Amino acid sequence: MLIFSRFAAGLALAAIAAGAYGYDRLWPDNSPRPESPSREAAKPSPPSAVVATAAPTAPVAVEAPAHMTSAQEASFDAWLIKTYLECWKPAPQAADADPYVAQVRLAFNPDGSLAKPAKLVNPPSDPALKPQAKSVMAAVQSCNPLPVPAEYRPLYEQWKTKTIHFNPQVAGR
Known about the structure:
This protein is mostly helical. The protein has six helices and three strands, in the order H-H-H-E-E-H-H-E-H. The N and C termini lie far apart (87 Å).
């Protein structure tokens, strides 16, 4: 009995592979169906005419989103920092104070607008540095939405979240 079951299963698989059980019915109605090789082989070719035939179409593969190269990522980060520095007016700091480098976590929409409010990752504990932090958050708001260059829009998945460092020493250059 076990031998018969394996034999019957093998025959059923062979019949399905050969198309005897409605190969065409395996495809959903709304998807393209590849041409069956047996149909094309059965068509007679014209005796004296040159015929151009299209290559059989295969199911369309979904392409994975592109990834930024290291150079693209560095270029995007440089553009992002430059853009935010142009919007930032750092608050004055005491000359003897250590510079406060604010770190802001950002989440973007594909159009360059903020997806959610910016988050200051390292709020200052020194009250004298709070105006600096406030100026950073004002810069983020004044730059919203960012005019993302067209070359980076297809790479949205790689820049949808970023952490930006606002260094007053860099802004003074």
